[in-house]
Amino acid sequence: MENQLLLHSIQILLICLIFWFLFIMFSYTKKHKISLTKKFWTGFGIGYLTDLLDTLGIGTFATTTTLFKLTKLVEDDRKIPATMTTAHVIPVLTEALLFITIVKVDLWTLIVMALSAFLGAFVGVRVTQHWNTSKVQRILGSLLLLAAFFMVYRMITNPGADLNDDIRGLYGINLLIGAIFDFGIGMLMSMGLGNYAPELIFFSLMGISPAVALPVMMLNAAMIMTAGAKQFILSGRVNWPGVPGIIVGGVLGVLTAGFFLTNIDVNQLKVLVVFIASYTGITLLYASYKKRVDG
């Protein structure tokens, strides 16, 4: 009974956040006479593809930035973070709502880790502002590739050792470790680094099915992005053409990917985790290298 009440409370919160964000967006655009139909279908295509991949764990930062540049939807690079966050908030809230509903997860694990990530992001805005982004990218990218290699090694040398699909959360000391881990991930998210690959790897290395990580990482991202998006809108840094299309296409992309993930078995999921960790690690190392060359 208590678990059902907690679950329904989180679901209601997410639905309220979706309507609250729509109210903020429509109020702002109406007040400033901003068209919401301009470049709708360009945005729709970007949203569908990027949020489909986001739901599969690839993340939206690299894919959205690339497509913004290819389509010239956002030509001012300074507006990319604000536009990207605003456009992806509702799809990410939908991801969180979808996965806490269809994936059985210990709700205290979900709440504790989401709060830890949120607090980490809150602290991170102040603490990480002077950190060397390239150095953090190199460290995190290297750790993700090392973790992916370790997972491949375990899959080859001990292929019969399945992740425990019966454990649906973290308990005791493991929950404390998870909370500390997500606090650190929240700090990194304040620098624009994603949480998906680290969360998937963390749960896998803890011997738990990475499916359990899905609602955790989606809820983390939803809370943090929602908090930032309002400030982005009110600051006038959003490039609005295509944003409604990204929202609509993104929600459809989330639902498409959600259907795929609910029909995938644990062995396929392990391979997907290795791919996501490797892709993210290589992307981070490349971004770090490019920044050093350009800088």
In DSSP terms, counting alpha (H) and pi (I) runs of 4 or more, how many helices?
11
Secondary-structure element pattern, one letter each: HHHHHHHHHHH
The major pleated sheet works out as:
none
* Amount of beta strand: under 5%
Q: How many independent structural domains?
A: 1
The helix/strand class is mainly alpha
Mean pLDDT across residues: 84
Shape: globular
Share of helical residues: over 70%
Task: Kindly provide the radius of gyration, computed on alpha-carbon positions and rounded to a whole number of angstroms.
Answer: 19 Å
Q: Which stretches are poorly predicted, pLDDT < 50 over at least 5 residues?
A: none
| First-residue to last-residue Cα separation | 56 Å
Please give the number of β-strands.
Answer: 0
What would your notes on this structure say?
The protein has 295 residues and is mostly helical. The protein has one domain. The protein has eleven helices and no strands. Helix 1 packs antiparallel against helix 4. 46% of the residues are buried.
